[in-house]
Known about the structure:
DUF3618 domain-containing protein, transmembrane, membrane, transmembrane helix
Amino acid sequence: MAISEGKARAQQVGSQLRDRTAGLAGHVREQAEHVREQAGHVREQAAHAVRAAQEKAPEQLLEKTAQAKEHLAGAAATVATTVQNNTPDHVRETAEQAARTARRNRGPMAAAGVAAFVVVLVARRRSRRGKR
């Protein structure tokens, strides 16, 4: 009896760890996406500033714009590196494995996403009907 209780406890702990890892991986993905979005905005602003400077500005302003662009690109890279360095190894490995699996299985992943969306819609519809 004690062995089966130990197995059950080990399975429970394993399940909890998988759940935590999945939650952390999701959080890391969200942070990475946020960093990517910020880097995209920074690049857009820098590109806009460069275009505006090239259209009107004297040589000195062009130099300052180029320096600002380099600085912003460096800052974006620093933020990305900081997020990567502060992410626990097991979470990073799990996220990388999930990304590789998703890239290899895009069709099934898209189908799973659509199925999850449909389940949510059906659940919402049923819950609204129950409130009437």
